[in-house]
Amino acid sequence: MKRILFSLALLLIAQQVHAADLETMKDVPYGDHERQVLDFYPAQSDKPTPVVFYIHGGGWQSGDKKTNPQPFLDNGISVVAINYRYVKNVVKEGVTPPVKAPLEDAARALQFVRSKADEWNLDKEKIGATGGSAGACSSLWLAFHDDMADHDSDDPIARESTRLACASVNGAQVTLDPKPLREWMPNYGYGAHAFGLYNLEAVIEKREELMPWIEKYSPMSHVTEDDPPIAMFYGGAVPVVGDSPKDPTHSAIMGVKLAEKLKETGVDVVLVHPGVKDKPYRNSTEYLIDHLTK
């Protein structure tokens, strides 16, 4: 019995040393494409740490995973920041619709991170996604989508869950459907490239044909009552549905409409924009720290 207890003690010490010795890892591949890489910033802890899963913005056409992890590390939260294939990377490869690549890359990267939970000292149950603009849209898509784990797969990574504990996003697009977007904001014009088209008028013209893709890759289409808590942060003008805002691509009007649906569905939601007086959180970072450290 003493030998068993001594062995267990040594194992525990080894795990603690390993957790304390984890260092930042850059450009860790989670796939075969040069853009399918991530950076891992470990919080030093003897216990498995929560994770912020950061998806950069840039319209799924530009941008990079570079980020500042320090506010999270200071609160015992590890950070993973991912790159993903741009839509332009996959058009020549015949991936249809092109938006399939960045969104499904995000899901695969999340599964890869979960597969590293023991090695990287991570808590699989406390992963919160964040990002701005297209990265925010990707985060919401992950948050609302049914679990994409394939439990019958021979690939252990594919068997990992894609569900999140929460998401906290900035300037998010909430749907790729041009019909409601133009009803909310007559001057809205973003998103045609997601389907390999040149402008939103082309998407409107082919809307019925594109509806299976629009529904599959629009965050709002996947909202159900079992979804995790959501926070959305927007700048710009006070949102008025029906107006033509200066920056429709990142307008809080979208947040207002998604928040309505989430409240109707019973999903916990925080919406912060210039028209909100009593802000429960100043920014997405505060929200993530609060929800991942409870």
Automatic annotation (TrEMBL):
InterPro entries, A to Z: AB_hydrolase_fold (IPR029058), BD-FAE-like_dom (IPR049492), GDXG_lipolytic_enzyme (IPR050300)
KW Ribonucleoprotein (keyword) present: no
Record flagged with keyword Signal: yes
Any GO MF annotation of the entry: triacylglycerol lipase activity
Residue stretches making up the BD-FAE-like domain: 40-241
Keyword line: Hydrolase, Signal
Signal sequence residues: 1-19
Domain of life, source organism: Bacteria
Pfam families: BD-FAE
UniProt record similarity statement: Belongs to the 'GDXG' lipolytic enzyme family.
Protein name listed in UniProt: Lipase
